[in-house]
From TrEMBL:
<keyword id="KW-0032">Aminotransferase</keyword>
<comment type="similarity">
    <text>Belongs to the DegT/DnrJ/EryC1 family. L-glutamine:2-deoxy-scyllo-inosose/scyllo-inosose aminotransferase subfamily.</text>
</comment>
<keyword id="KW-0663">Pyridoxal phosphate</keyword>
<dbReference type="Pfam" id="PF01041">
    <property type="entry name" value="DegT_DnrJ_EryC1"/>
</dbReference>
<dbReference type="GO" id="GO:0030170">
    <property type="term" value="F:pyridoxal phosphate binding"/>
</dbReference>
<dbReference type="InterPro" id="IPR015421">
    <property type="entry name" value="PyrdxlP-dep_Trfase_major"/>
</dbReference>
<dbReference type="InterPro" id="IPR000653">
    <property type="entry name" value="DegT/StrS_aminotransferase"/>
</dbReference>
<protein>
    <recommendedName>
        <fullName>DegT/DnrJ/EryC1/StrS aminotransferase</fullName>
    </recommendedName>
</protein>
<dbReference type="InterPro" id="IPR015422">
    <property type="entry name" value="PyrdxlP-dep_Trfase_small"/>
</dbReference>
<dbReference type="InterPro" id="IPR015424">
    <property type="entry name" value="PyrdxlP-dep_Trfase"/>
</dbReference>
<keyword id="KW-0808">Transferase</keyword>
<dbReference type="GO" id="GO:0008483">
    <property type="term" value="F:transaminase activity"/>
</dbReference>
<dbReference type="GO" id="GO:0000271">
    <property type="term" value="P:polysaccharide biosynthetic process"/>
</dbReference>
Length: 220
């Protein structure tokens, strides 16, 4: 799509650093330069004001990635694109079967109501909860990693959704200030929300998280 739009050598394309490398790689393969902009801390998608700050006379496009089942502010980004004459491309994640969306939302609502000591995700704009991503408050990565180890020891499968932002990876390393991206990479943790999970399993996960979450809160 970038090549079809004419993106090539000497052009810049604004992309998120919070995620995997495939978007930045696609820009490079088209011959253009990926320019990283910061994310909105609620949606984990590109922030329109950060994108605007990253736009230069060489910018030709923006690649918007919808994250974890939560949509970006695509209307705001399209308005920005129109103002600057930029192509706005969207990349979604794999589609969640419609039959599973309602079940995931029910599980997400249960978790958001019961979890303590972590920051639960925003549920706006038709969130499909492809991943249920919380933030572990405290001192960033050390506390998040300790939290993950503790609940894994109690049988809770969890994962770090973005271990290293793309602008910190070899081949794409940039000296750019992306505070929300860095913070999200240090604090986020994806908890299981698979369709086969029973209410009993969800309750056990909540108990494991809350036992540690309460201790974290007391330590502040």
């Amino acid at each position: 799509m970038l090549r079809a739009a004419g993106a090539g050598v000497g052009d810049e394309v604004v992309v998120p650093a919070f995620g995997n490398t495939e978007v930045a790689q696609a820009v490079s393969l088209a011959g253009a330069v990926p320019v990283f902009a910061d994310i909105d801390p609620v949606t984990y998608c590109l922030d329109a004001s950060a994108v605007e700050a990253a736009v230069t006379s060489r910018t030709v496009a923006i690649v918007v990635v919808h994250r974890f089942g939560r949509s970006a502010d695509i209307a705001g980004l399209h308005r920005l694109g129109q103002r600057h004459g930029l192509l706005v491309l969207e990349q979604g994640e794999s589609e969640t079967p419609y039959s599973e969306v309602g079940e995931r939302r029910q599980r997400a609502a249960y978790l958001s109501a019961k979890l303590k000591g972590v920051w639960t995700p925003d549920e706006g704009d038709g969130h499909t909860f492809q991943q249920y991503v919380v933030r572990v408050p405290g001192n960033g990565r050390p506390d998040r990693d300790a939290f993950a180890r503790a609940i894994r020891a109690k049988g809770v499968e969890c994962s770090v959704p973005v271990k290293t932002p793309v602008h910190r990876m070899p081949g794409f390393r940039r000296d750019v200030c992306l505070p929300e991206t860095e913070r999200a990479a240090d604090e986020t943790l994806a908890l299981p929300i698979a369709g086969e999970m029973s209410r009993r399993q969800l309750h056990r996960m909540v108990s494991a998280c809350n036992a540690l979450g309460g201790l974290l809160q007391l330590a502040f």
